[in-house]
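Figure 2 data, in text form.
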Amino acid sequence: MVINTNTAAIRGSRVLGESTQRLNASLARLASGTRIISPQDDAAGLAVASKFDAQIQRNRGVQNNLSSAISYSQTQDGFLQKVGKALDRMSELATLALDNTKSANDKSNYQTEFTDLKNYISDIGVKDFNGVSLFSGTGLEVTKDSDGDTWTLNASGLNSTDITSVIASGFAVTSSNAVSTLKTAVENVATHRAKVGANIQRLQYTQEQVSILNENLQSSVSRIKDVDVAEESAQYARYNILVQSGTAMLAQANLLPQNALRLLS
């Protein structure tokens, strides 16, 4: 029996400190909802989760880029739809102008509407989307994944030869080749709309693919980082009891040296 060194109290203090540390960590996990409070909790898991988190953020950027590209393509299609309607009307006017029972004044009226429609199509050809030309004839590059890979949209241009012939200054409703030129132009616009439609479809599929990938990545991060509340609650209750019992036993250990006084009395 000794007085200066209370081995039982030292050991009890150490065990109580460990239990208190575990209790605090368990409390922090439950409060934050994450299993990894500090790197030493799961160093390898933290590294993997960090990489996944970064990829998730890049994928969100990709989704934003794809949404912009979809809006760009939908704007193209909206304008092409109007161009198609204008060409339909122009071809109708060209056919009406073939009627030799029409007077020169009638055909002049047709030409007035015909010219306005030509100018309308010409104006659409220079439209842009946020400063980016819609119908330059150059395919737009779009980001398709978190690695920065891209693919090029099918190009759409209203300056191709057949459309240019329609909006040419000398092209009139009474031109000998007006109907055939307009038929070709209508087919060309339909082809452009098909290309734009294919762009939109692929963009939507790519966006869905990136969304599914993000969902799976987030699920993986959750398995690594998120705390199991039921399991951690049980651990918290355990450590809480250990801290309380450790505190009580430390108090008892501190009383042991007093037994030495009995030998001195």
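Caption note: Residues 43-96 form the longest helix (54 residues).
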